[in-house]
């Protein structure tokens, strides 16, 4: 479950009481919030929920519709914002139900893994807790591409939740 050594985990954890939980609306991302809640419980940690608006988050049918209708920019953008806001609102409610008291929500654009790693640096988080899989449709893999990339590039410890 721990992607890096327990030693690193303890060191970074002591440096920052922020836990970054990137969420994409998947079941595993909700499980990641549950794990963050357990980790936050004693340390009174702040949990930062992040959704990255990337191309893969937009259903193919909507993308095709937007391109056929020559919709670029605002309507597509509004749709993405609505999805992100909805995901974060649901995540925030879930986090509250699990007893997390300090919750920050963030939206970023671009490549999900890169944006997650950048957010971890910018917000000086002590650790990232995320799902091992997400909304992706490829079955049979232990890890999704976002979780793999984040665990390689993250400036802090990464816990991937199965
Ligand atoms: N767009 C995103 N915004 C925020 N977090 C994400 C995003 N995509 C994936 N994640 C995080 O990465 C985890 C693993 O997802 P991913 O690697 O994309 O697997 P899959 O290939 O199954 O979709 C998710 O559970 C979630 O925590
Ligand atoms: Mg995915």
How is the topology of this model organized?
Elements: H1 6-15, E1 18-22, H2 27-43, E2 46-53, H3 60-68, H4 74-97, E3 102-109, H5 112-122, E4 127-131, H6 145-153, E5 157-161
Parallel strand pairs: 1-2, 1-4, 2-3, 4-5
Helix pairs in contact: 5-6
The structure holds adenosine-5'-diphosphate and magnesium ion.
Q: How would you describe the overall organization of this protein?
A:
This protein is of the alpha/beta class and 162 residues long. The protein has one domain (6-161): Rossmann fold, CATH 3.40.50. The protein has six helices and five strands; from the N terminus they run H-E-H-E-H-H-E-H-E-H-E. The chain has helices spanning 6-15, 27-43, 60-68, 74-97, 112-122, 145-153; strands at residues 18-22, 46-53, 102-109, 127-131, 157-161. Strands 3-2-1-4-5 form a five-stranded parallel sheet, sandwiched between helices. Helix 2 links the parallel strand 1 (18-22) and strand 2 (46-53). Helix 5 (112-122) runs parallel beside helix 6. The chain starts with 5 loop residues before the first helix and ends with a strand. The structure holds adenosine-5'-diphosphate (ADP) and magnesium ion. Adenosine-5'-diphosphate binds at residues 22-24, 26, 28-29, 32, 50-52, 54, 57, 112, 130-131, 133-136, 144-147. Adenosine-5'-diphosphate (ADP) binds next to helix 2, strand 2, strand 4 and helix 6.
